[in-house]
Design a protein that fits this description.
Layout lengths: L8 H18 L12 H22 L11 H4 L2 H23 L8
Helix pairs in contact: 2-4
Length: 108
Amino acid sequence: MSKVVKPSTTTITAARATTATSAVKKDKKVVPLQPLFTKDNYLWMIIGGVVIALGMVLMSGGKNQDPNVFDYNVVYSFTRITVAPILIVGGLVIEIFAVFKKPKVTAE
């Protein structure tokens, strides 16, 4: 049998007290955190999402006139096989760009 050792509350309180006093002693100016994404990032994310959605719609479009006949031209059309996947991959590239885009630095 092993003993379960619980940390004492005095140790935790003492550790918190030292960090609180050390923060007061430094007298540094508190700078608020910048948001992770800016308005530009969200705009590029929306554009990427629209491009991906457009690619999905183009990939799904078209139907046969007669359901008993398989029409290769409709199923394997240039739009479904080439254009739609390019749009989807392009939209994913735009999304990656939107996530990694750094905000513009403004002079203070």
